[in-house]
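Why run this: before we spend reagent on co-expression, it is cheaper to look at a predicted model of the complex and decide which construct boundaries make sense. The entries below are exactly what would go into the expression plan.
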Amino acid sequence: MNYETSTATVLTAAEPIRDRVIAPRKILIVEDDQEAAAMLVELLRGEGYGVDAVGSAEEAIERFRVETYHLLLTDLLLPGKSGVELTKLVHEACPATAIVLITGHATVKTAVTALKRGANDYLRKPVAPKKLIERVSALVEARPDYLPNKLLAVGRSGEVNFEGMIARSRVMHNVFEKVKLASQADATVLITGESGTGKELVARAVHQRSQRHAGAFIAVHTGALPRDLIASELFGHERGAFTGATERKEGKFELADGGTIFLDEISTMDERTQINLLRVLESFTYMRIGGKKERAANVHVVAATNRDLSKMVEEGTFREDLFYRLNILQINLPPVRERREDVALLAHEFLQHFARVYRKPVEVVPAGTQRLLEAYHWPGNVRELRNVVEQAVLLARGRTLDPELLPQMIYRAGPSEETIRIPLGTSMDAAEKEVILRTLEARQGNKKLTAEVLGISRRSLYNKLAEYGYGRFGDGLDDN
Ligand SMILES: Nc1ncnc2c1ncn2[C@@H]1O[C@H](COP(=O)(O)OP(=O)(O)OP(=O)(O)O)[C@@H](O)[C@H]1O
Ligand SMILES: [Mg+2]
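The model came back. Tokens follow.
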């Protein structure tokens, strides 16, 4: 599919997703009675708050792993963990988040317990709308700008949005660190990774972070050009240089002067262009076709490929000398199936984005949908995930992204599969990670059971999960 011209890109290209870690004044409602929840959502949204709603304490905790709220409004009696337990957890992890309990069964005793555990207020059912809004808005307005959230599962650097790239996994945070390095030097960068993993975003991030950010970012995909036009596209030509060259033309290297040139899918570059490029990378000069003057190539060269170039070198289909010239700083983007902990975060981000674009009221990724998304192997990586969420948002009728809205291949595969496939050639570390995460999934996130099944101590399991960027959730959360 030619993604570049799909309606999805056209509709959304002007609106990059960025810098939206904490939305202003957000409220999370925890209420298992759907009708009551809908009423609260409507009421508070009418007051201009960003409102999410879930049906259990466990789902609320999941929400706090990807989002920070100014206020938590929770029912006291919930199907699993109680509102009081949730209060205690959230209060410890997010001390600046206000907590209000709603209960139909309030005795003075439970209310006092809840207040002791960190709740700011409690209201009895049925709640009078006016009173609710009064109490809630007083608390929300009094919140500080920065709301600490220890549950937020993020990588080492603590960022979940880096130049428009959303991730919390440790592997992606290593990528971000490399992008920072690459942007500080002018050394040639080679970005590798499967299709749809975000290579172009990385290239743009390198440019954006560098001293050249005021210059142009010029992307070229030589493989997509007719062969006899490539040299002229890259280096430009003088008038009359060849038949049809009626005007002088600036090449991409010239257009990128002072900025960055992004050579996309470098593996498709033909032999002659490879030689030309090598010459530029050796001298950082070039000539327009038909020209006599050497020109300085004042550009940062960033190349990308989804093929294994070193293998192509071995097979003799890519020039070895050019490979070494390009491969000075390599940034490898891991496929999504090796960073499943990013899936929920990405899905939520895309959901909000497309809900806005298509003006749909969808806002919740329920646990069932999340589990299916996390279990799928994503051959098309982030691009595929983005497309799947876009389609589901278009099909959605209510506020939740129900599992049935997912394509059959994802919906049917389900996370309940009792076998996993690990391709030959997988490293021990990657295989171990796959086994651990898939077992955890199959045991519905129960770490005690997972550790037992895997025959490792709970401590080793926590250490592994922390290594994968899931963080230590602490505060009693580890006990399930
Ligand atoms: N970490 C991320 N956060 C948010 N969006 C992402 C992320 N990674 C990729 N995307 C989105 O996924 C899509 C594919 O990304 P991109 O075009 O950078 O991938 P690519 O590796 O260049 O793919 P290809 O090999 O097919 O050219 C884009 O819409 C991009 O915005
Ligand atoms: Mg690309």
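Residues 1-23, 472-480 have pLDDT under 50 and may be disordered. The longest strand covers residues 98-103. Bring this page to Monday's planning discussion.
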